[in-house]
Fold:
Amino acid sequence: MLLEAIRRRAVVHHHRSGDMVVSENERHWTGIVLGGMARVFLITKGGRQVTLRHARAGSSVGVGALLGEGTVSAQAVTNCTVLTLDTHQVMQLAREHVSLAFAIAQETSVRLMETYREVVIREEGSVRQRLARQLLNFAGQVDPSDPLLLPMSHEEIADAVGSAREVVSRHLARFQADEMLALERGRIRIVDPVRLDSTARQPE
Structure:
């Protein structure tokens, strides 16, 4: 009954790769990724995008907006299907049903821990993990119209990862052999962002 009531007021949206799913300027926005993958990020005062995590199917985006004033930005890395919730309705139901309020708290905790793990990967992850994550972080920032294409040299990526060019080139070659990306002259195309995301999450 509770879930059915929420579904009736929710709206399904389809986003193409590169589309903005939500902007920080849209207050009280909360959605659930039903398919595809989206990059969740914040924008600094200087205009720089700081990637927080990558939301895959079954993951919520902007769940913090249910409890606070702000939200995050999200861009479709691949074609995405997103269920946008009626946040006013959800919060009203949460005040009436403890089970829903607890579920929101659980989801908020899961997404917070996911963000914490991203910080650990950036600080302590292996070169392979940090490289996989950095490639995904660049997706959409370099060319929003084609987020899976990175017109960057191996040296530029190595600088961003904080490793030697030769080491990064070896890992890129392995990623290509595993069909996660395609190396082209002066650019890299991400072929399988979901597997690349899984690689970033898995320690060697």
Notes: The domain at 2-122 is CATH 2.60.120.10 (Jelly Rolls). The chain has seven helices and eleven strands.
